[in-house]
Amino acid sequence: MNYENLLVEMHGKVALITLNRPKALNALSPALTAELSDLLDRLETDDKVAAVVLTGNEKAFAAGADIKVMKDWSYMDVYKSDFITASWERLASFRKPSIAAVAGYALGGGCELAMMCDFIIAADTAKFGQPEITIGTIPGAGGTQRLTRFIGKSKAMDMVLTGRTMDAEEAERCGLVSRLVPAEQLLDEALAAASRIAELSAPVVMMAKESVNRAFETTLSEGVRFERRLFHSTFALADQKEGMAAFAEKRKPAFKNS
Ligand code: HXC
C-alpha cells in the first residue's frame, strides 16, 4: 500500500497509520483524507487487520484542514462537493477498533479526526483545540458535536468560541483523552492497547464498539435495549462459549472470531 501522505506499518494484527505531511504539520489536504478513506476501506475488509492506531509525529498529530487549499474556495465549491464529509467521516464509520495516538498539535480538523477514533491516547506534549473561529470559520467535521459530547457544553463553548488550545493534562482531566503518557511511550502504549484488543474476539469487539457508539445517537432506554440485543447475540458465538469455558477451566481463551 503506497500512499503519498500516509505511512502504513503492520504490528502483528494492528495497522499503524502515520499521517505524513510533516512540513505542513500534517495539514489535512483533500489528497490526504482521500488516501485515508481508501486505506480504511481496505483495512476494514482485511482479516489480517484487527485494529488501527492513527498517529502523526512529535510536533503534530495534525494542525487541521489545509488552510492554504481551502482559502480561496467559494460557498458553491464547498457546498457542491459537500466538503468534507465523505472522506473524513470514513473514520467515524470504521467498524474495527481505532485508537488515536496524539503528540503535539491536534487542532481543528486534527482534533476532529482524533475524536472520530474510538479513544485517544495523548502524549504529555499534546495540544488540542478548535481554532477555526480565529480564521473566520467554525469546525466542520463534527467538532462542535463530538467535542461537546466528550467534554460538556461549558468547556466546548470555551474551546470553540475562543479558539484556545488545551494541554494534555486538561484534556485528560475533562475526558477528551483516555490515557496520558510521556511522549516517548506514546506509540508503545497505543500499540499495546490495540494489540490487547486484537487478541479478543473480533465480532464481540465490534459489537461492544457499536453499542458504546449507540450511546451518542439515542435515548438511554433505547440504548440499553440495543445493548441487551447485542449482549444476547454474543451467546450465538463460539467465542462466548470459549471465553466463559476458559474462565471456568482457568486457562487463556483461544478466540476464533466466530
Ligand atoms: C496549512 C499549515 C497548517 C494548516 C500549519 N501549516 N498548519 N498549512 N494548513 N492547518 C503549515 C504552515 O503554514 C507552515 O508552512 C508549516 O505548516 C509550519 O507551521 P508554522 O505555523 O510555521 O509552525 P508554528 O509557528 O510552530 O505554529 C504551529 C501552529 C500554526 C500553532 C499549529 O501552524 C497554526 O496555527 N496552524 C493552523 C491551525 C489552525 O487554524 N487549524 C484549523 C484549520 S481549519 P510554511 O510553508 O509556511 O513553512 C480546520 C477546519 C476543519 O481544520 C473543518 C472540517 C474539515
Automatic annotation (TrEMBL):
The keyword Mitochondrion does not apply. Keywords: Lyase. The keyword Ribonucleoprotein does not apply. PROSITE patterns: ENOYL_COA_HYDRATASE. GO terms for molecular function: enoyl-CoA hydratase activity. Its EC number is 4.2.1.17. PANTHER family: ENOYL-COA HYDRATASE, MITOCHONDRIAL, ENOYL-COA HYDRATASE-RELATED. Belongs to the enoyl-CoA hydratase/isomerase family. This is Enoyl-CoA hydratase. The lineage of its organism: Bacteria, Pseudomonadati, Pseudomonadota, Gammaproteobacteria, Pseudomonadales.
